[in-house]
Amino acid sequence: MINEFDLEDELEYPEELYPVVELSDSILELTEKLELIRGKLDNFEQRYLEADEEMRECEGYEIPSSTKLERWQAAIEEMSDRIEFLGDPL
């Protein structure tokens, strides 16, 4: 049985699609990074809500600084606005 990927490797990939593939790969990479961060935030929130006050103090459940969180929020909003301004690439 021929592996689908082997068949694709044998076909010549159109060079004009390289920028499309590069953009798609970059979006995937950024999405994965943001998903990792979102997962950490969700995990922190869940553990914090499940812990009682004494446990929070003992285990150092320190809320990140509001300045840091605000910078992140501003950066995300700026990126979102810029993407919206650019419009759909296709």
What does this structure look like?
With 90 residues, the chain is mainly α. The protein has 4 helices and no strands. It is elongated and about 60 Å long. The chain starts with a helix and ends with a helix. 0% of the residues are buried. The model has no long low-confidence stretch (mean pLDDT 87).
Give the SSE map.
Blueprint: H1 4-10, H2 18-50, H3 53-58, H4 66-86
Helix content: over 70%
Beta-strand segment tally:
0
Low-pLDDT windows of residues = none
The N- to C-terminal Cα distance equals 36 Å
- Number of distinct helices: 4
Radius of gyration: 21 Å
SS-derived structural category: mainly alpha
The chain-level mean pLDDT equals 87
Shape: elongated
Percent strand equals under 5%
Order of SSEs: HHHH
* Major sheet details: none
Task: Report a brief summary of the structure.
This protein has 90 residues and is mainly α. 74% of the residues lie in helices and 0% in strands. The protein is elongated, with a radius of gyration of 21 Å.
Features:
single chain, 90 residues, mainly alpha, elongated
